[in-house]
Design a protein that fits this description.
The protein has 75 residues and is α+β, with helices and mostly antiparallel strands. 27% of the residues lie in helices and 8% in strands. It has helices at residues 18-33, 65-68, and strands spanning 37-39, 56-58. A two-stranded antiparallel sheet has the order 1-2. The chain starts with 17 loop residues before the first helix and ends in a 7-residue tail after the last helix.
């Protein structure tokens, strides 16, 4: 469950800042633009806070940014 980080049934809270949120969303967009296939999520959750649905990518190639860089997010 994505939500309140202080709730015992939550496994993922929000991103720490707007900067980190935008960086992660940029990685998701560039991964799709580079040809990776996104499955299940990858969108902002709600209008408040910096919550992102976890996403799984397939069809990734070694030269893609998503493979080369550590994202520090739900990707």
């Amino acid at each position: 469950k994505v939500g309140d980080p202080f709730s015992p049934d939550t496994y993922q809270g929000p991103q720490v800042s707007k900067t980190q949120f935008e960086l992660i969303m940029g990685h998701i967009t560039s991964s799709k633009d580079d040809g990776a296939t996104g499955h299940l999520g990858g969108k902002q959750i709600g209008q408040e806070g910096y919550f992102i649905e976890p996403i799984i990518f397939t069809e990734c190639q070694p030269d893609m940014k998503i493979v080369r860089e550590e994202i520090f997010g739900p990707v």
